[in-house]
Every structure is written in structure tokens, then in C-alpha cells.
Design goal:
The chain is an alpha+beta fold. It contains seven helices and four strands. A four-stranded antiparallel beta sheet has the order 2-3-1-4. The chain starts with a strand and ends in a 7-residue tail after the last helix. It binds adenosine-3',5'-cyclic-monophosphate (CMP). The site of adenosine-3',5'-cyclic-monophosphate has 8 residues, from loops.
Length: 136
């Protein structure tokens, strides 16, 4: 099963991308797709469309377009649920010790990594960044 992770602009800017990637591989994920992209405003708005009415939508879009990020298509048994466990809670202050966000996130807004929250969203989000032919 595949899921989508995004190493967010804060982690790329602070040169933690390699550590995050090593953490994911160490947790048993195989990298099937990887890119570095700088999201356009329209892309970020489309990716986070489900949050359009939330108060954090504009700051979220501003942050996600502020610099390059690294979308990853990751494969593992139970990939969607397992990745959510590995990255920890949205707010690093609430994230379990040893999770990616506890280790590398700056704040709830600048929280180092995104992960799909359901199998359906995983398929949609992998498709947002990767064509079938891009997946190894
Ligand atoms: P992510 O899981 O990538 O998807 C939505 C993002 O919105 C979330 O990570 C956070 O980085 C960001 N965000 C900012 N403020 C909030 C908030 N109050 N509640 C949930 N998500 C928030």
C-alpha cells in the first residue's frame, strides 16, 4: 500500500530533510516516488481544499508555498495508518517522543511533515504529485 508524505518547507530550509527521510526508511517505508517542488498558490490551495474554510487555511497556504518541499510516495504494509503513527500529532508539543514531529517540527504550523489521513486521500494525494509512470 502507498501513502503520501511531504517533507514541508520548514524541514527543507533547516536542512533536516535527510534526517526525516532516514527516519521514514528506518520505520520500514520504501521510497517509490520522490520529487522536490515549490508549490504554486493554486497547487497549495487545491491540495488543502478540504481546509478552505478553516481559520488556518491562508497561513497554511502561505507556509506551504514559502519554499521547496519534498513529496514522497511511500510503501509499507498498513502505510497510511502506520505513517500517521510515525509522524506523531499535528502539534509537536503533543507528539509522542521519538516521532518525526516531536524530533523535527518547530510548531503546529511549521510541523515538518504531512501524511495522508485515509487510504482514499492517500491515493488522491499520491496522484496529485506523481504520475503512475513516476512510481518505481
Ligand atoms: P497537515 O497534516 O499537513 O494538514 C493540515 C495542516 O494545517 C496541518 O498539517 C498543520 O500544519 C496546519 N495547521 C495549522 N494550524 C492548524 C490547526 N489549528 N489545526 C490543524 N492543523 C493546523
Amino acid at each position: 500500500m502507498l501513502t503520501l508524505a511531504i517533507i514541508k518547507p520548514d524541514a527543507v530550509a533547516s536542512r533536516k530533510a535527510g534526517k526525516v527521510l532516514a527516519h521514514l526508511e528506518g520505520a520500514g517505508f520504501a521510497i517509490r516516488g520522490a520529487r522536490m517542488v515549490r508549490l504554486s498558490l493554486a497547487q497549495a490551495e487545491a491540495f488543502y481544499a478540504v481546509h478552505r474554510e478553516r481559520p488556518f487555511f491562508r497561513p497554511l497556504v502561505a507556509f506551504m508555498t514559502s519554499g521547496p518541499c519534498i513529496p514522497l510516495a511511500l510503501e509499507r504494509a498498513d502505510a497510511v495508518a502506520y505513517l500517521r503513527t510515525v509522524i506523531g500529532a499535528t502539534d509537536p508539543k503533543e507528539a509522542a517522543p521519538g516521532t518525526v514531529r516531536a524530533l523535527y517540527a518547530e510548531s503546529k504550523e511549521r510541523n515538518a511533515i504531512h501524511a495522508s489521513d485515509s487510504e482514499e486521500n492517500g491515493r488522491r494525494e499520491v496522484g496529485f504529485f506523481f504520475a503512475e509512470a513516476d512510481l518505481q
